[in-house]
Amino acid sequence: MRELLQSFKIRREERILALAVVLVFILLNALTINKYGNVFMHPTDDYWKLFIGRFRVSGYDPITYYVLSTWEARYNVYRHPLLAFFMYPPYLINQAVIHATGINGAQVITAMMLVAASLYSFLFLHRIFREVIRVGKGDALLLTTLYFSFAYIMVATMVPDHFILSMMMILLTLYVTGRHLREGSSMGRKQTVWLFILTAGISLNNGIKVFLANLFANGKHFFRPKNLLLTVALPAILMWTFCRWEYHTFVLENEQARHALKIKQKKEKKQREIALQKVRERQDSLQRSKGDTLPSTATKPVVKKSRRPAYTGKPLGKGEFMRWTDITTSRWDSAVENLFGESLQLHESHLLGDVFRRRPIIVRYDHVWNYLVEVVAVFLFLWGIWRGRRDRFLWLVLSMMGVDMALHMGLGFGINEIYIMSPHYLFAMPVAMGYLLLKSKGKTLLCVRMVMLLLTVYLGMHNGWLLTQYMLQ
Fold first, then answer.
1. How far apart, in Å, do the first and last CA atoms of the chain sit?
2. How many other C-beta atoms lie within 10 A of the C-beta of residue 41?
3. How far apart are alpha carbons 125 and 145 in whole angstroms?
4. How many CB atoms lie within 10 A of CB 13?
5. Using CB atoms within 10 A as the burial measure, which of 36, 89, 257, 375 is most buried?
6. What span, in angstroms and rounded, lies between the C-alpha atoms of 155 and 164?
7. Which residues, in sequence order, are CB contacts of 130 under 8 Å at separation 6+?
8. pLDDT exceeds cutoff 70 at 9
9. What's the pTM value of the predicted model, to 2 decimals?
């Protein structure tokens, strides 16, 4: 644990870079606070309705605002088993702010956490390029900046969701594992378990990536019975047991109460509609008895707007988890427009729209050059994989990305908004490009650097401009 904590120490040579990065992330979070602050900073009796009903940035959920305002295990406990407990100290701070000032500080406190997580994500990735892949200082800065110019990496740094926290822990895991690989040392059991608790505690499926890290760092020793039992099986079983306990202790009763309330409200609404219909029928009867032949406007049917989401993919089954799968959405279109499209550069059409409201699953770019940019980025990614194909660390990174691709592109979990999950896997692109810079020489190296620089500038300007426009609406 001490070694992990040491990783959060900002080194002397990193201080100026850290200051510059923090200023950028503060500006991004200021946009979010500016957009919603006038509404969200006022205490209310129904924070869920306020935050969930008003927050509109792609498909992100502002559950963190709610948890910091009224603590409750409101995250999906099977996906985020420890996240609500990690948010308990910030919740207490926010309660002190509310009592002292009468202002709900959930937005500001969340922004502080996002800035901190974004900063350390930047530093961990930068260290990976410098200490693990071992490219030059300029190239490391270029690649790290390129990564944070990607659309949904930029967006993740400023929205109240868990993704930037998950990304920070995955990058920390990669950094720690990369150092073990370069030093030829093994990854300790305690270190692995702590990384698993923190990473899986935020997002359960990412715990698999910690076990992959242990596998790549320890090689065949990973399969020793003691390691499999104490490092893999026991923590996984305990985490799942905790999920079940948390659900039955903190969630089930409230969930049943909310479900009963919804049934009651629907029943009351139906009764009101029946009563209103009877009144209208009596009015129509009176009009007819008086010889009034004019049609009654009160009997005109009311056309209700459908709130059915655009998501129409067919699931593998109807079980608790299988209902979220999708076997019909086009994988090719999803890859072109979302996986390597929206994740890297925002679509101008349906800008930051939510597929569970009005945004179609597949949105096309308005210009051919948008696709050319995507082709260039994917080409550099694949070329980098080829140049670094013999490096064990690269295969660790790609295996982590493979976990997400199996879930999203294979089974279809969240494929309708796969770009939102970008922080869980998109770091593989600049990491692979790092090997391209490392292995290239002469004019080839100069050309690759120039293309990456142009790509960084374009994505930063394109995504930054559209994002700013959206937040200032």
1. 45
2. 17
3. 10
4. 9
5. 36
6. 9
7. 137, 140
8. yes
9. 0.90
